[in-house]
């Protein structure tokens, strides 16, 4: 089952202007969907598009080799960064 066909048990409340709600209702109507179906479908599509950019790397062989070499290389010694990371956070003081 997909996200839209499973039993629905979670709720999301939205606050919007009346004009925004009317526009969403019109868009839902022209796609023959309820407002909930329209918001869920378009929201899930937007979420999938957003997340897909963060899951897939497409590199040619040269760039892939450079990427893998960078991952394999130990970090350079950076005393200022080590000092900064060793400090207690402001909320722990």
Q: Percent helix among the residues?
A: 40-55%
* Poorly predicted residue ranges: none
Oligomer: single chain
Mean pLDDT: 90
Structural class: mainly alpha
The end-to-end distance, rounded to whole angstroms, is 49 Å
Instruction: Give me the Rg, rounded.
Output: 24 Å
* Extended strand count: 0
Assign an overall shape. Answer: elongated
The helix/strand series, from N terminus to C terminus, equals HHHH
Largest beta sheet, briefly? none
Percent of sequence in beta strands: under 5%
Number of helical stretches of at least 4 residues: 4
Describe, in plain words, how this protein is organized in 3D.
The structure is a single chain. This protein is 55% helix and 0% strand. The chain has four helices and no strands. The termini are far apart.
Briefly summarize what is shown.
With 93 residues, this protein is mostly helical.
How do the helices and strands line up, and which of them pair or pack?
Layout: H1 18-30, H2 35-52, H3 61-72, H4 79-86
Helix pairs in contact: 1-2
What are its keywords?
single chain
């Amino acid at each position: 089952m997909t996200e839209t066909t499973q039993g629905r048990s979670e709720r999301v409340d939205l606050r919007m202007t009346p004009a925004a709600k009317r526009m969403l209702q019109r868009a839902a109507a022209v796609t023959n969907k309820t407002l909930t179906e329209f918001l869920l479908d378009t929201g899930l599509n937007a979420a999938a598009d957003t997340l897909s950019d963060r899951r897939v790397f497409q590199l040619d062989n040269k760039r892939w080799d450079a990427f893998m070499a960078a991952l394999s290389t130990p970090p350079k010694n950076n005393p200022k960064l080590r000092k900064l990371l060793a400090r207690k956070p402001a909320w722990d003081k």
